[in-house]
Amino acid sequence: MTPGEKKLGRDTGKLNAKRIIPVMKKEFLHIVRDTRSLVIALLAPVILLVLYAYAVTFDINKIDLGVVDYDRTFISREIVQKFTASGYFEVNKGCYNSMEKCVKTLRMNGIKMILVLPYNLYTDIKKGREVKLQVIGDGSDSNTISIGLGYCQAIIAQISGNLMLETVSSRGFDVKSVPMIVPVPRVWYNPELKSTNYIVPGLAAIIMMLISALLTSLTIVREKEHNTYEQLVATPLKPLELMIGKIVPYIVLCLIDVTLIVSVGILWFHVPFKGSFIVLAVYTLLFLFCALGLGLIISAVAENQQVAVMGTALGTLLPSILLSGFVFPIASMPVIIQAISYVVPAKYYIVALRTIFLKAGTGFFTVWGEGMFLLVFGTIFITASARSFKKTIG
Asked: Looking at the predicted structure, is the pLDDT value of residue 358 above 90?
């Protein structure tokens, strides 16, 4: 074996930066020259975040309420006033005090709930009898009704407690001497229970999973459609060198996207950021490693850009929304579905983001488990994409 052959043998056994850098430069030039795609890549995540952050919310206010007051006394009016003053309900005046109109309006989705105040409400209360208020909900919107029924129970419990104290006081007892068990709830990390603080970090992960994979899913398949794939095959580039050269420019672009998204979340939606930006950057890099690697796998096996886009949407968006814990708790899913959720990278990034955003003192080892999963999956995806790239034509 000649010295030149030995040198060539040593070179083929390891990655060569001199071969990777030209690929990176080529991808950077392509990104910069394609102005429209660059603008879309930078603006689309911010626009999607703003739209979905306003659209996706678990804070339900102003539930349309129909009221049928058969008692028509001051105490029944006071109960209705308690409901409207809470801010959670808005009484529909068009069907007020008409059960027939309320039922018709409920059927036509004009209201979500009906509050029925029975006859002799005031009399039964004065005589110390049990009073039952009927609340009818539209079960076709189960999420809203579940939350609305919780609001109703809280309001009625408050009214009942006030009535009990008034009754005790009217009989000559000292209200302060009545023993009571009073819950004192304390909510850490999100004391106002604002769903925005919970939704925005999750949306950031979902959006970046889609955008990152979409950007790289078009890189190799674009070479095929532009008839430059043969040139890549003819070069001494190794598959892994090609994948690294193509992924690095998009890591830079996606880091800019994440910076914009985090800035909008903090400055526009006022999501508190209690953690470390350095920790956020590290876990973001690990996540982008996964997302971009998945996009490269799709790009390597897809025949054209349409197939690549469809494969990216099916492989990233749907699993990230349904199986990441973004909306639906994974613990309540069947065991098989829970097992499938372990291969969804967005699941780990969402946990990391919410922890870093909302919990003070978050360090590298606070969510180290999620980081290890992201690192493992990223390595698998990059390796798989390199193996999917064939240095042959036809």
From this structure: yes
Residue 323: count of CB within 10 angstroms of its CB: 20
Helices 277-301, 195-217: axis angle to 10 degrees equals 40
Give the pLDDT confidence score for residue 96 in this predicted structure. Answer: 93
Q: Torsion over CA of 320, 321, 327 and 328, rounded to 10 degrees?
A: -80
Summarize pLDDT for 182-218 with one digit per residue, the tens.
Answer: 677 788 898 888 889 989 999 999 999 999 998 888 8
CB 68 within 8 A of CB 98: yes
Judge if pTM exceeds 0.70. yes
Report the C-alpha gap between 244 and 282 in whole angstroms. Answer: 18
Cα 297 to Cα 196: distance, rounded to the nearest angstrom = 34
Instruction: Specify whether the backbone of 270 is left (phi greater than 0), alpha (psi in -120 to 50) or beta.
Output: left
Distance CA 230, CA 237 (A): 12
**What are the domain boundaries of the chain?**
18-56+194-388, 63-177
DSSP structure class, residue 313 = I
For the stretch 55-109, pLDDT in tens is: 887 777 789 999 999 999 988 999 999 999 988 999 999 999 999 999 999 999 9
- Residue 10's pLDDT band (cuts 50, 70, 90): very low
Closest CA to 372 of 312, 283, 275: 283
Only one residue has tokens 């990391």, namely 352
Q: Which residues contact 131 (CB under 8 A, 6 or more apart)?
A: 118, 121, 124, 125
The residues facing 64 across adjacent strands are 90
Measure CA 71 to chain center. 46
Strands 89-91 and 63-69: parallel
2: confidence class by pLDDT, cuts 50, 70, 90: very low
Is the predicted pLDDT of residue 133 greater than 50, yes or no? Answer: yes
User: How many helices (H) and strands (E) in the chain?
Assistant: 17, 4
What CATH number should be reported for the domain whose range is 63-177? Answer: 3.40.1710.10
Phi, psi of 50 (to 5 degrees): -65, -45
Cα distances (angstroms) measured from residue 371 to each of 55, 262, 377? 30, 19, 10
